Amino acid sequence: MMEPMPEAIKQNHSGNPKTYQAMVMQCVAYTNGVRTEDIGLEEISEVIKRENTFIWLGLREPNAPLLEKIQQEFGLHELAIEDTRTAHQRPKLEEYGDTLFLVMQTAQLYRDSVQFGESHIFAGPNFIITVRHGSSLSYRKIRERCENMPQSLAKGPGFVLYALIDFIVDNYMPVVDGLQERFERLEEDIFKNRFNQQTLEKLYDLKHELLMLRSAAAPLQDICNELMRFHSHVISQDVQFYYRDISDHVKRIDQAIDSMREMLTAAMQVYLALLTVGQNEIVKRLAGWGAILALPTMVFSLYGMNFKNMPELEWPYSYHAVLASLALACGLLYRQLKKSGWL
Questions:
Q1: Terminal CA-CA length for the chain
Q2: Handedness of CA 209, 213, 214, 216 (dihedral sign)
Q3: What's the whole-number average pLDDT of the chain?
Q4: Fewer CB in 10 Å around end: N or C, the chain?
C-alpha cells in the first residue's frame, strides 16, 4: 500500500503537482522525537539545519530527476545515488563521509511464491531516506510505531534504521514458514509414489528460492555486527545494542534455511532413489514376462505348428499336449516369479 503524498510536497510543485506524487511517500521532520511537520522537497536543506531535528523521507521507485534533487538537498555521494538508480544490488553497508548507505533485499509470500524486492537506506546524523524497489511492504507501520515511541525516536536516525532493518528481518520468517509448508506438501507427494516431472521441478524451484532467501538474509549478520561496533556518529551507543536483537533473529532464520536446505537435498535424493527403484521394478516385470514368453517362443519357432500331426510324434493329440505342457510350464514360471517379487 502506498502512503498518500503530503500536502506540503504538492504545494511545492504547483507547476507540475504530479511530478513526484507517486514516488514520494512521506517527508516528515521530527524534533526531539516528536513529529513536527510535513515538509516539501525544497524545504529540506533549511529544515535539516535545525537543532535536535532529523528528516525521514520515504521514496518508491524514484526516477533520475528526483534522485538528483535528493542528492542536492542532502549532499549524498554520487556513487550511492548511482547504485540506487540502477538497483539490483547485493546486500551491503557502505560509508560515504557522515552518511551510511545500506542495501537490503525484502521478501514476502504472494500466491505461494516468494516475491523479492530491494530497499536502499541513506542514514546520516540528521536524516534517513528509504528507497523501495520492486515488491516491498509499505513502511507506514514502522513510521507509526516509531511515532508512538517518542523517547526512542528522540535517539535519532539510528533508531529508525534499527526499526527498518528489524521490520525487514521479521518478514523473512513468514516466508520461511511458507516454504516449509510447500516442502511438506511435496514430501507427501514423494512418499506416496506419485512420480512425475513436475514434482522434481517444484523441488528445484523451492531450492532456488531458499538460496535467494539465504543470500538476502545472511549478509545482514555482518551488517548488524558492524553497526553494533562502529558508526557512532549516526548510531548512538544506547541504540547500538538494539542491533544485537536483529543479529539473533538473522541467526535463527539462517539456521532454519540451512536445515530446510539439508532436508530438501535429502528429499531430492530420496525422490531420485525411489524413482530408480520404480524403474527397476518395471525392468524386473518386463524381464519376468520375457522369461515366460520365451518358452512358447522357443517351441513354436522349432515346430512352427503348421502340421496336421506333430513331426516326430505320430500322435493325433500332440498339438494339444504341447499347448498344455507350455501352459503348465508358463504357469509354474509365473508362480515362481510372483513369489520372488519379480511380477
A1: 61
A2: positive
A3: 77
A4: N
pTM, to two decimals: 0.71
* Rg of the Cα atoms in the chain: 35
**Burial zone of 257 (CB within 10 Å; 0-12 exposed, 13-18 middle, 19+ buried):** buried
Burial (0-12, 13-18, 19+ Cβ within 10 Å), 76: buried
pLDDT of the residue at 30: 86
Can you tell me the distance from the alpha carbon of 117 to that of 171, in angstroms, rounded to the nearest whole number?
12
Contact 7, 38 (CB under 8 A): yes
Cell numbers representing residue 103 in the block: 542495501
Lowest mean pLDDT segment, chosen from 79-88, 267-276, 292-301:
292-301
Distances (CA, A) of 88 to 85, 214, 216, 290: 9, 16, 12, 59
Least confident of 17-31, 85-99, 149-163: 17-31
Cα–Cα distances (Å) from 2 to 10, 63, 86, 135, 172, in that order, read 16, 17, 22, 12, 21
Kindly state whether residues 144 and 184 are assigned to the same domain: no
Same domain, 122 and 164: yes
Q: Residue 110: its pLDDT value, please?
A: 79
| Predicted local confidence at residue 292, as pLDDT | 67
Query: In the numeric block, which cell numbers belong to residue 228?
Result: 553494533
What SS3 state is found at 137?
coil
Strand partners, 331: none
In a shared domain, residues 93 and 178: no
Domain range spanning residue 2? 1-168
DSSP 299-334: HHHHHTT-SSS-TT---TTHHHHHHHHHHHHHHHHH
